[in-house]
Amino acid sequence: MAAGFELYLDGEGDHRFRLVAVDGSVMLTSEAYAQEDAAIAGIWAVQEVAATGSIVDLTGSNAPEAVSMPHWPLHATGGRS
Questions:
Q1: For residue range 3-61, what is the model confidence (pLDDT) as tens digits?
Q2: What is the sign, positive or negative, of the torsion defined by CA atoms of 13, 15, 19, 24?
Q3: What is the pTM of this model?
Q4: Distance between CA 6 and CA 38 in Å, rounded?
Q5: Which of 23, 52, 63, 79 could in theory staple to 33 by disulfide, Cβ–Cβ 3.0 to 4.6 A?
Q6: Backbone conformation region of residue 78, classed left if phi is above 0, alpha if psi is from -120 to 50, else beta
Q7: SS3 75
Q8: Domain 4-62 is in which class?
């Protein structure tokens, strides 16, 4: 099996995508998108960020003091959480 993105409809009829590893394990599952085009834009956004984004180590001695970590979901035009 080749690694890659799978675009699918969830149980609510929304579009989602997942990133699947070569061994078939799911590495990432997206938020729900009302429109297929928005889900595809989300795939493109993840590809771009993954290719150019930096890696930030927040474990061990690099971990911040007891502070909740912020969460920034990726949103493509037309997407919904």
A1: 999 999 999 999 999 999 999 999 999 999 999 999 999 999 999 998 888 888 888 88
A2: positive
A3: 0.69
A4: 14
A5: 79
A6: left
A7: coil
A8: alpha beta
Q: Which residues pair with 7 in a beta bridge?
A: 17
Residue 17 and residue 39: Cα distance in Å, rounded?
Answer: 7
Q: Going along the chain, which residue ranges are E strands?
A: 4-9, 15-20, 26-29
Q: Give the integer Cα–Cα distance in Å for 46 and 38.
A: 12
Residue pair 43/28 in contact (Cβ under 8 Å)? The answer is no
- Please report where in the chains the tokens 């699947």 appear, as a residue: 20
Residue type, 46: V
C-alpha 65 chain-centroid distance: 26
Contact predicate 28/34, CB 8 Å: no
Task: Read off the tokens for 39.
Answer: 């889900």
Phi–psi pair at 37, nearest 5 degrees: -60, -35
